[in-house]
Amino acid sequence: MKKDLPHKHDSSSENVISHFPETEVIISVSEAMKQLGDPSRLRIFWLLCHTEECVANIAAAVNMSSPAVSHHLRLLKTAGLIVSHREGKEMFYRAADTRLADSLHHTIEKVAEIACPR
Fold first, then answer.
1. Are 93 and 83 in contact (CB under 8 A)?
2. What are the φ/ψ torsions at residue 20 (nearest 5 degrees)?
3. 49: helix, coil or strand?
4. 36-40 contacts: CB < 8 A, separation 24 or more?
């Protein structure tokens, strides 16, 4: 995106602005980060970065009711951070295999100073 700035101080601002991400990318990242601003969703997302689980097991792991977990899963899925698949009557969830989900997963672990379980 090329923008002419009203004030010419130096060329560094114009260089940065020329590399500004597309609006759709900013919206996508912002929505994902907004969803992870909730501690419950952050815990659920981190769990699903390491394992695939059903709602009942996720609920037990994070000490929440299944309906509450389902609500958070829906929001994480809408943000593109997790995916699901059905096996019989059960839905299983895991982190999406995307650069955004992977980057956020690693950012969480770096900021929280925790390591991936082996």
1. yes
2. -60, 130
3. coil
4. 36/81, 36/104, 36/108, 38/72, 40/64, 40/68, 40/72
Q: Among the CATH numbers 1.10.10.10, 3.40.50.12780, 3.40.50.620, 1.10.287.110, which is that of 12-112?
A: 1.10.10.10
Q: Name the band, by pLDDT with cuts 50, 70 and 90, for residue 3.
A: low
| Cβ pair 95, 105 in contact under 8 A | yes
- Check residue 114 and give its pLDDT: 80
pLDDT digits (tens, 9 = 90+) for 23-75: 998 898 999 999 999 999 999 999 999 999 999 999 999 999 999 999 999 99
Q: Which amino acid is at 82?
A: I
- The mean-pLDDT minimum among 10-14, 15-19, 77-81 falls in 10-14
DSSP 3-state of 75: helix
CB of 77 closer than 8 Å to CB of 83: yes
- Tokens for 62? 């994070």
> Do residues 98 and 80 touch, judged by C-beta distance below 8 A?
yes
